[in-house]
Amino acid sequence: MNDYDERRAKHLDFWKSASGQQSGDSAKLAQALITLVNQPELPRRFIAGADAIGMVEQKIALLQQQIAAYRELSSSLAFDVKAWIFFCRGRQQRPCSDTCPSNP
Questions:
Q1: What angle is formed at CA 62 by the lines to CA 57 and CA 65, rounded to 5 degrees?
Q2: What region, left, alpha or beta, does residue 25 occupy, with left being phi > 0 and alpha being psi -120 to 50 degrees?
Q3: In a structure prediction context, what are the per-residue pLDDT tens digits for the chain, which is 104 residues long?
Q4: Is residue 99 part of a domain?
């Protein structure tokens, strides 16, 4: 798609310039992956390299800050069945729908 040509070209240039410039040892990465494959249970995520661990730790810290900042708002979103039943019964004699919690 032509709309993405410029963006794709920039990404391709970036990946080409980074190729071979990685800080880690590719042979050690290969050995680590073989070690993982031979484990009874694979990790859901494997962070390869000390630099990657640092970046992920920064991301985790940011996510924890966001959780703390919005915990109360996020936690306030639970469905209140009692309020819904009161609302349904107050508006009409029959249940709102087949899935309404006020159905007997």
A1: 125
A2: beta
A3: 688 888 999 989 888 888 877 788 889 999 999 999 999 999 999 999 999 999 999 999 999 999 999 999 999 888 777 777 666 666 655 555 556 655 55
A4: no
Is residue 89 packed enough to be buried (19+ CB in 10 Å), middle (13-18) or exposed (0-12)? middle
Is residue 31 within 8 A of residue 5, CB to CB? The reply is no
Residue 7 domain-assigned?
yes
Domain count within the chain: 1
Q: Is position 97 within any domain? A: no
Instruction: Indicate the pTM of the whole model.
Output: 0.57
Quote the domain boundaries for residue 7. 2-91
Residue 11 lies in a domain: yes
